[in-house]
Design goal:
With 200 residues, the protein is mainly β. The chain is built from 1 helix and 16 strands. The chain is elongated, with a radius of gyration of 26 Å.
Length: 200
């Protein structure tokens, strides 16, 4: 008899736990629509929720995902991951619009930071990578190549005071052949190392 009562209590506990997470009336799990193969709304216990397309129980197709941390993503998913065109509005005010590959910004995209600094160009693994244009809210601007978020390759940096550098960069610093143009129009051309000219 004691064994039977224990078994009943265990089964009741399992049933209650299942309802907490999976039953539509509980507030968790799939609360409306079809979250297997169709359009549906799914709510997680941490406050996240998603409304959009599903395939075989995974987010797949277009939808909107509201995160408990304040981030909002609207765009395409493939097998539960952001893939394709999308827009990510972050809780800190930054907004990225562009391509995603497996949850990361990859391909062409535009980000507008909360301080109004912008970047338009190529991304790889959530980092600026390839050709792009960066405009700082102060007025500085860079047009050129990036590698792993750093100016790397050929590019032109224009300062807000009108001076500019046009040439090669290495991991964020002026390095290689380049020309610096001053406000009065005079130029300094030569080989640069770590931001300093070493040979004219």
């Amino acid at each position: 008899m004691k064994y039977i009562l224990t078994l009943i209590l265990v089964l009741l506990t399992i049933s209650i736990q299942a309802q907490d997470y999976d039953e539509p009336g509980s507030g968790y799990g799939c609360i409306s629509g079809d979250c297997e193969d169709g359009l549906g709304k799914y709510v997680w216990k941490n406050g996240d929720y998603y409304y959009g397309a599903w395939r075989e129980g995974k987010m797949h197709g277009k939808g909107t995902h509201y995160k408990g941390n304040g981030n909002i993503y609207t765009g395409f998913y493939r097998n539960n991951k952001k893939n394709g065109q999308g827009k990510l509005v972050m809780s800190n005010g930054d907004i990225y619009t562009g391509e995603f590959v497996d949850n990361m910004a990859e391909g062409y995209g535009v980000i507008i930071y909360s301080n109004k600094t912008t970047y338009k160009g190529n991304w790889k693994g959530n980092k600026k990578h390839g050709k792009g244009t960066w405009k700082h809210f102060s007025g500085d601007m860079y047009i050129g190549e990036y590698q792993n978020n750093l100016r790397h390759g050929k590019g032109r940096f224009v300062y807000k005071n009108g001076e500019s550098y046009n040439g090669m960069w290495s991991y964020g610093a002026m390095e290689g052949q380049g020309t610096y143009t001053y406000q009065d129009g005079t130029q300094q051309s030569g080989i640069w190392e770590n931001g300093e000219i070493v040979k004219q």
